[in-house]
Amino acid sequence: MKSIKIHAMIRKTLVVLILLSLGHALSHFLKAKTRFEPDSIKSPIYIGAKLHYGFIIPHAEDLKPVSESNIWGFQVDISKLGISPKAWSNCNCYSRLGFSFDFFDYRNPEILGHSYNLAFFFEPYFNFKSRSRFSLRAGMGLTYLDRVYDEASNPSNLFYSSKISGLLLLNLSYNFIINDYYQLNFALNYNHISNAGAKMPNKGMNFPTASLGLDYILNPRKLQPQEKNLGLRDKKFLKYSRMFWSIRSVEADSLNKRKNNLMIGVEAGIIKGLSNINGLLGGMEFSYDGSFQDLSNRMEQDYSPFIFSLHFGHAFVIGKITFTQQMAWYVYRPFPSASESFFQRYGIYYRIGNMVSVGFSLKAHGHVAEHMDMRIGVEF
């Protein structure tokens, strides 16, 4: 009992220290951003706080016993609203770039513990002329998890096994402008935690939440319409080609040490515009997975480590940002890595210049994440 109280005190102290450090860093950030800028070019700065309440999705039968509690959390963030023509061109809209710090209590301290998340986000507004504004936030970052899988002491936590893991988030927000300096927001949030297959078990945690928050706005500005760049509707097809790679680990066993293996591949496809910002996608993907080769050798089998798949899906193309959601069919996959014939892939990319794009994608079978990879290529 005494040990539990000490650990709880340490966690609370850690949260307070992080918030104080974040507040100190933010004050310097704000001074640096505003001290030397004339009023005519100062960008609005948003400082926000939110409370979250939600649940964990038990996407496998063996996860249901540890997914029965409702979770809560709080969030603080800072962001900058781009008002320049260059910032507008990123998405043909007004958008915010910023950082958020979240703390989540999964209400199961012995098995799931807590998470401390730091994420970078991009949040475009769908409208800006009224006091009611809708926005979509997409972000990625890192999370520190204080209770992870351990074969001896915590075998029930099959969600995550790495104390440092990846975080992906997607939020739909309703923002109400109270006055020039305050904005109330309500959001539906979808969060995903995974170590991208670096360590097993890694079934990944998906937890939707609802949040209520308040933003304080420094340097408020009245937003004016700007000229829109050409969108998808002005092109017959948007073609793309990318190379991707990641490191996939195979855990140690009684005969072999833990080994990191290269996964590398290429993809190509086309996007047919349906409107200025969204279209249908069709493509293919070919890859080599060194972890399959490693596992085949351990099993004394001769499975090929190559994969070929066909893709169909949807894409949002908002200025320089491309967000894809794909359903893919395994045409060739000799290694029995999963029972499904299909998988999903979610990608987000940023275009540099006229053609080059960089980003990352997440591969999943249903709600179970398999791995994440980095991608670089061209869009034309």
Any overview of this molecule?
The longest helix is centred in the first third of the chain and has 33 residues, at 2-34. The chain has two domains: 43-218, Porin (Beta Barrel), CATH 2.40.160.20; 232-379, Porin, CATH 2.40.160. Helices cover 13% and strands 52% of the residues. The radius of gyration is 22 Å and the shape is globular. The chain is built from three helices and 16 strands. With 380 residues, it is mainly beta.
Outline the secondary-structure elements.
Layout: H1 2-34, E1 45-55, E2 70-82, H2 85-89, E3 95-105, E4 114-124, E5 132-145, E6 164-177, E7 182-194, E8 205-218, E9 238-250, E10 259-273, E11 278-289, H3 290-299, E12 306-318, E13 321-332, E14 342-352, E15 356-365, E16 368-379
Antiparallel strand pairs: 1-2, 1-8, 2-3, 3-4, 4-5, 5-6, 6-7, 7-8, 9-10, 9-16, 10-11, 11-12, 12-13, 13-14, 14-15, 15-16
